[in-house]
Structures
1.
Amino acid sequence: MTDLFSLAGKTALVTGGTRGIGLMIARGLLQADAAKVYVSSRKPEACEQAAEELSRYGTAIPVPANVSTEEGCLALAEAVSSRHGEAGEPLHILVNNAGATWGAPLEEFPAHAWDKVVDLNLKAPFYLTRALLPLLRKAATPDDPARVINIGSIDGIMTPGDRYSYTASKAGLHQLTRVLAKELGPEAITVNAVAPGPFESKMMAATLEAFGDAIAAAAPLRRIGRPDDMAGVAVYLASRAGAFVTGTVIPVDGGLTAT
């Protein structure tokens, strides 16, 4: 059973890995014995701080990058690849977690909020996955595929209020996950999405402060998500336990989508 969920010898990259859900996942991968985890975000100091915090669990390597543009995604892929010579080392696990949200009334919702959110939440996972395909292919075998894990949201499944670009981008990411799973499956690369519900993070801080008790009460399990809940699903999808799972969207939400 320990071997079934082990990530021993595997290398991972987590975007948005310096806080919130990304940090939870990075920690979980290291606790499952991943050989190394690259953590990336826009701010170099945040990357350094997160890597230092994660170092108690294993080897965490800071790689700052702004993945909100195609150029930034290519730069991150090159930064990871170039650390191990011209060909690069195998990348066993890619976690596309970096994201943004925006809320405003329908009549006031700005055009730039669509661009910012869609660029980061939907276009970046596509560009980065494509740029890292050579390293993912190098890691992939029929019995142990390379893994792409996209972090969607239950907002891409349910119908929340004023976060129009966010909910559309996450629904789009869920569909992109299925399309890529179909295309990359024959190359022994699985592509799955996780749709988190409410977790303690900077993105959710204001919402939870104002409505946390009501949100928890609405969930069948009567609580919000904890770090181990997110770490657990990521380790499952990245390990041998999840080797035959692809094209799925897994809600991790305490049952909110069932209501």
2.
Amino acid sequence: MPRVTQAHLDARRQQIIDAARARFATHGFARTSMSDLVEASGLSTGAIYRYFKGKDQIVAAICEQGSQALPAELTAASVHDFLQHIRTMAREEDHARLVAQIYAEAAVSPPLAALLRQQLDDLRNAVAALLPDHKPAEAGRIAEAFVAVCEGYSQQLAVRGDLDPAPFTAALVAIIES
């Protein structure tokens, strides 16, 4: 019997993650069973359990694949483009709803909360690094506020639907320039 390639294994794992991402965004974690993920992925129960012990591991895998599309510099134009990227992902991939579900799950899952805290720390550090003209403590405060507004924008997209990023851009530029 031929061995399965690593590329095949990686593709099956990604197939599960993609199906879970879509299902979690539209139905939430609590209303998604492993049977739902079997159906959504088109794989067998055994195939899913080969890669993940349960939903918690799938959620963690989704989080670990999260990308930060931070601009290389913090200008009004680049901040607008960054928020526009968040908006596009919310419209095209239901990303904002997925993030809202992840935050809700993290509130009751200490391991997921730890993962999110680390990702938020990394994001704040990346933003602070884009503020070389500020003292480290001030850059940290600005980064904290910057991330909070961006996360708030994402959460509002999840609940309110499509939102113009202009007022959020103005707020972020004011924070950066303060």
3.
Amino acid sequence: MKKKFTVVIFTDLDGSLLHRDTFQFDSIKDYIKSLVNKGVIIIPNSSKTEKEIEKFNEELGVNLPFISENGSSIHGLNLITSNFPDKLVLSREKEELIKIFENKVPEKLKEKCFQISKMSKKEQENILGQKDVKLKDALNRKYTLPFLFKGDKNEKNELLKVLNSNSLTLQEGGRVLNLCDNINKVKSMNRVIKILKKTEDKIKTIAVGDNYNDLDMLKSCDIPCLVFNDQFIQDQINIDNLIFSNKPSPEGWADVIKTALLKLNY
């Protein structure tokens, strides 16, 4: 019997699927594999780099298509259907973004921005929670620039205004801010859905996140899921039909997915 629809899960990684501090997911690895075996398409949509997500796939033991660097590039759609593209780049190169940043952002605001790549190795380890090869992979960014902003709220809003007027964006994750092109997770998610619809008649989308840069993605899917994050109060997140887990990742990820699939009668 032909399936009624295809389920596609777009998921953040850090703090959503991966443990916030250890980045482990061993306790749900078999569950993820069982979903793939049932025909569920799982697409990590993360601020992580291409190399980091490739290594996540290696650890999982499954080659999942994925979106890296906050929507900047899409990888492996040909794993779903062979004539789909292997890679799509939606962003300008990081060096071009930095050039605009240096030329257009006022000096008083630039002084409040501290690039992670220019910090000592010890500072980088403390901020990103990674060491050695994993730290190198996290810093190997092609399209985004992670930094800390040490200004007040008004200065941050002023920075956002300057960036937006120059077709740049600021994506806020759990650990750092990322200077990005005029792209984000939801734009890349919608691009993927458009491609999938060339071969899939009906698609039901689930999106999983835990932080501010995930909220637009959650608002744009069929079943939005929020994994516990102590920075958030659930009642303050205004998203219709939101599924919320009281457990942190990785167990919280499995909980919201099971609830979402029940909701879809899948």
